[in-house]
Amino acid sequence: MTGRTGLFLAYGLPDAVLAGRPADAVAAAGRAEAAGVHALLLGDRPAARPGRPAPPAAIVTASVLAVRTRRIGLVVDAAPAYHEPYNLARMVASLDHVSAGRAGWRVVTGADPEADANHRREGADPVDGRAAREAEFVPLLRDLWDTWEDGAFVHEKDTGRFIDPGRVRVLDHRGPALRVRGPLNLVRPPQGHPVVLAPADHPVLAREADVLLAGSPEAAAAADRPVLATVTPFVAGTEAGAQELHARAGAPRSDADAAVLVGDGPSVARRLLAWADRASLHGFALRFPQPEGVEAFTALALPALRAAGGLVDGHGPATLRGHLGLARPENRIVARLTAAGTERSRPR
Asked: Whose CA is closest to 107, among 136, 129, 66, 127?
């Protein structure tokens, strides 16, 4: 990680936007990108919600947004309990390709009885071995993304040679919970590995993630990689207006999962900067219960953050890793073969 010069901001768009017309989601993403926001967090829970429809699958929405935006990162939720590793590796790598290096995967963990009930089959229950599957899942996806070395797709039209087979690896993974042969059927993603985000307090996944997602910034702690704390902002032109918005939303209170922040633009910006400085945070994942909250934060708090020098230029790098100051990772398979002395020399 390189040192940051301002905050990284990721917007969690409200369900009311994502479940509406696709044009509304595209417009919201475009406004966020134009305002310099660095990423969108697209939730995905494979279970029905009482009284309302859920948004379309996050990977589908992200793919639509990928072709209508140019710089903003696109992070999709997916739980190891409900996906096969080969297929999820394929989908996230595909998003990285169609977005030209802007894909991220937020690893969803923990019990979800309603979603569990939708994913049982003979001999397989998401409840059984959940922890073992989660522990094995992220390293396995990284290996699948590395089954194609950089440069494996040679695309020599004159000779009709399109692939260097010596640079495509069979993985043959056989772990305690998962078995995958590989290779993946896609070339290595533009970012090498799409960015992996995981809960900061997860005993295993936190070690495997590129970015740690903390709950309330009051309890967040610095780490050896970017940490994003979670905040639900209610912003208006005046303190009284912000309090009214908060009350209309049911007056949610801060808890371990997220801090609730109520105020005008400058006061919200000052509080975010104070939290970031205290805990050496890289930035924030912002939750917006209502669509108007997105627009108010963008119009009132973002300018105050920018004026205070507290916002990384979202118009700079064009990849999600670039926005986060993360390097493109080396190929893990090649590194292991090289370390073992079994990698063949190759003319350059």
From this structure: 136
